[in-house]
Prior knowledge:
heterodimer, A: six-stranded mixed sheet, about 45% strand, B: mainly beta, seven-stranded mixed sheet, about 60% strand, globular
Amino acid sequence: SYEVTQPPSVSVSPGQTATITCSGDNLGRKYVSWYQQKSGQSPVLVIYQDGKRPSGIPERFSGFNAGHAATLTISGTQAMDEAVYYCLAWDSNTYIFGPGTEVTVL
Amino acid sequence: QVQLQESGPGLVKPAQTLSVTCTVSGGSISSGTSYWSWIRQPAGKGLEWIGHIYTGGSTNFDPSLKNRVTMSVDTSKNQFSLTLTSVTAADTAVYYCARDQMGRDCTGNNCYTNWYFDLWGRGTLVTVSS
C-alpha cells in the first residue's frame, strides 16, 4: 500500500518561513492536500490540488508538488500558525494521510 | 453554511459494535459530490481515513478496516453512519465525519480529478473499555 512520510516537527521564528515536506514514491503524480489541526480542534483544509488555497486561508500558505515530494510553505509565520499539519494523497481509491508535522513558532 | 455534527455512544465494551452518526445541517446531503467520509484519530496520534459512502449507497473502505466496517446513509434525515464491529482498545479515538470534495485540474484538453476534505465535523470521542 502507498505511504507518505513527514518530519515529526519543524521549528520557525515569527516572521520567518516554515517549510513542511511530504514524501512518497512519485508523489508528484498524485494530488496532495494539506490540513492544519490546532490543539483540541478539528482539521482545517489549507491547501488542495497541490497548491490552491480555499477561501479564507491567508496568502502566506502555499503548496507545491513535484517528483517525490510535496511541500507546504508558510511565509511570514505567525504565532497563530502553530499547529500540526497533515498532508493527504489520493491513491487507488483510498486516502492516505501523512503522519503529521508539528510546527512550533519560537 | 453546511455543518457536520457527529454523535456517538461515548463508551463501548470490547468485542461489541461501535456506531456513530453524522448529521448534515444547512444543506442537503445529496448536494455537491455526495461523498461523505469517516476519519478517526487516537489520542495524540495522526489521522486515519476509515472509508466513505456515496448518497446512492456505494461505499469504499480502507483495506485495513474493511472487514469490520459498514456505512449507511439516510437521505431523509440528512445523516450517514459508521458501524465498526469487534472493537478493541485500539479503536478508541475521536471519530470525525467529513465532506469529500472533488477538484478538477485542466490543462488544454486534459482534465484530472482529485479529492480532498473541505468540511469537517467537530468529532466525537469513542472509548473502548470494559
